[in-house]
Amino acid sequence: MSANETLGEKTLEPSPGQTIGPFYAFGLEYPKMHEVAFPHSPGAIVLGGIVYDGAGAPIPDACVEIWGADADGTISRARGSRRRDDHTFTGFGRAFTNDEGRYEFWTRNPGAADGKAPFFATLVFARGLPNKLHTRIYLPEDEARLAADPLLSSLTEDERATLIAQRTPEGYLEHDIHLQGERETVFIAF
Amino acid sequence: MSLAEQAHSPQTAAAPESLLASPDMPSQREINAEIAEVQAAAAARAARGEAVPFTLYDFAPYRSSVLRHPTKNPRLVDPESIELWSPAYGQRDVAAIEADLTLQHSGEPLGERITVTGRVLDSWGRPLRNQLVEIWQANSAGRYIHQRDQHPAPLDPNFTGAGRTVTNDDGEYFFTTIKPGPYPWKNHVNAWRPAHIHFSVFGSAFTQRIITQMYFPGDPLFALDPIYQSIRQQKDRDRLVSTYDHDLTVPEFSMGYRWDIVVDGPDATWFESEGKH
After folding, report:
1. Are residues B53 and A131, on separate chains, in Cβ contact within 8 Å?
2. Residues 115..134 of A with a Cβ closer than 8 Å to B: which?
3. B2 in a domain, yes or no?
């Protein structure tokens, strides 16, 4: 069913987005904001990487947000993303890049929902980036589901590689984001 | 590798404050000409039927965007389930006092006390309740409470400039704060940002997430500001400007401004039925 059939024509134009600017930290920071899962809980992993600019330099003032399903594929409706209680999985996390351009989350591997390849819905904001960027971070393991994914299968090998995280020996996930350049990450719109 | 090369090696991040000034420091006149040129090019692309976003990513008059914007168009995708939901917030997630930025210290902040209110709506005009709204801003002298802000204007010991609230059942938010001052930012010679408050809102789907800036009516800096002008059309820029509302002005206390936030879409080809998650 199309959105238009359900709701009719849109009646309002959206507010345009703007850059997050240089001084967002004091407005957006809160305790344990990058702990989507409690670090010492079963199944907790680190998802981390570096955000790069078009010259290959790390970006020390970017904000990355992830939103993902729980390990069984369900989407959390639990509150508490802003006030962590150290056990509830809410699915949402926010991380600022450090002076080396690195972001890190404690989270869980999302499970497959509707039989599709699991991924973290991901947003990038930065000083110097005029508006938000949507992308996805896919888990690397399930090759059959990755092959069936409509977005991934529309991409070249190089482009596809920018959306799939790498598994480290300790079971963590490593995923760099390139805002520009030869390895420019594939960004998406809806 | 020489020391100079090491300093620019991809492994070494530059000190963030060293990145704030633009490398070429053009004049305001040059920036104005660039803004007009880029906006005209975008208008021509749109006239040819190209889908050009409201906010231009490739916008060199905003100098720090040059190496930080993607060069390829985003891939248009059908949202998957996770992207049609967003994190759940509720009234308990913030305290009521966090919406009053004038009450966070022992004394009263300096400046023009204002109330800012409005609704968070979707594209069909439906109010979005239980939305986390986060704001941050400079103080009345145009100074941010941030270690990288080098603007030699005074900090206000009674003002931090960050607040948050959760929308009520009618999608409304209410803040009490101080009107921020204009702020110099070294994008070009004599570059000043119009007074603004940063807003962050989630929407009911992750696709709707928005971070933007609210401005004040009649600001003489609008035409000169590459960030405001990164929105390519006047009709779209206008939607970020609040309106002065005398009915919101509290006698002998504060000036009232009204500003609605409209989150976009999603232009989904389908919606999943409710209740599965």
Report:
1. yes
2. 116, 119, 121, 123, 125-134
3. no
